Amino acid sequence: METSENTTNELIIRIEEKYSTMSKGQRRLADYVCSNYDKAVFLTAARLGEIVGVSESTVVRFATQLGYKGYPGFQKALEELVRNKLNSIQRMEVTYGRITQSEILQTVLQSDIEKIKLTLNSIDHKAFDLAIDTILDADKIYVIGIRSCAPLASFLSFYLNLVCENVTAVTTNSSSEIFEQLIRIGSNDVIIGISFPRYSMRTLKALEFASNRKAKVITLTDSVHSPMNLYSSCNLIARSDMASIVDSLVAPLSVINALIVALCMKKQKEVVTTLESLEEIWDEYQVYSGDELNPLNQPLSAAPEGGRERKSRKKEGDTDE
Questions:
Q1: pLDDT tens-digit readout, 283-319
Q2: Within 10 Å of residue 64's Cβ, how many Cβ atoms?
Q3: Fewer CB within 10 A of the end CB, N or C, for the chain?
Q4: Beta bridge partners of 142
Q5: What angle do CA 75, 78, 84 make, to 5 degrees?
Q6: Whole-prediction pTM
């Protein structure tokens, strides 16, 4: 049996262990799966059997012999293998091979809807509640996400800062900078790591660093088999798209929204006080300026006086009438 380079995972190990006891038809299935896992993942049992030249029942028996609950269980294991192994070019090739130009909008949006549904049906509610309590009990909160996960980390950090004190968005320009920002993390702190395939080694190392210093670790990732869970005491699982050049992170963002809402509900009085203070600051410093609503040709002097504009004129000797 030949296997593609760097494809060793639980599924491949099971196939290797059972290979010597397989029938000829099952061996053909094993060889095809190991060499063409990126194609096999999208095939039904009947279609896989047709390609290899065996019956659908042989395919199902093959999956059962490997220890999975029928073909659906085998296919989930195959998805884990593909999710970790496809590079960007392969993902693009698979995507372009499955949909036409006219189907893109409907297919992508429908896929995102499906990811949210799958996440809703499978997410661990106890883990979600534990994440809320862990964040509320922490002295300091660190959030890290790299590359395509960076916007998620930024979004979470922005709203956490409105709800909690001592929130640090870990910037990730270099590996050394990450550890410098985490140097004071300790047992009373929590770090939230966000990573989806292809998993970031820098995020993983940051979680390892925090775990070694006894900090609480919360992960937001796509699978219980994700390496991000190695150091985590609380795993939030959200489905992401595994076969596209663009990572689908709609479901993870929904989980982040739920986290923020839950935290706000737990700290309603503090959040209201913070927002009231911010509204005053925003108004005083014209963060959300009324000028944005003025026609482009309206003179600046016609805009409402306030904030920095009013203070500026006072410095020039003007007085309010």
A1: 777 777 655 544 444 554 444 444 444 444 444 555 4
A2: 14
A3: C
A4: 168, 191
A5: 145
A6: 0.63
Residue 148 pLDDT > 70: yes
Do residues 237 and 123 touch, judged by C-beta distance below 8 A?
A: yes
Torsion of CA 165, 170, 171, 177, to 10 degrees: 120
Residues near 31 by beta carbon (within 8 Å), at least 6 away in sequence: 1, 2
Rounded CA-CA distance 46/41 in Å is 13
Q: Locate 61 and state its tokens.
A: 């028996």
* Range list of H helices, the chain: 10-18, 24-35, 37-40, 45-52, 56-65, 70-85, 88-98, 104-122, 125-137, 150-163, 175-181, 201-212, 250-266, 268-284, 307-315
**Omega before residue 83 within 30° of 0, cis:** no
Q: Look at residues 164, 143, 165 and name the one whose alpha carbon lies nearest to residue 152.
A: 143
- What token pair was written down for 42? 């999208």
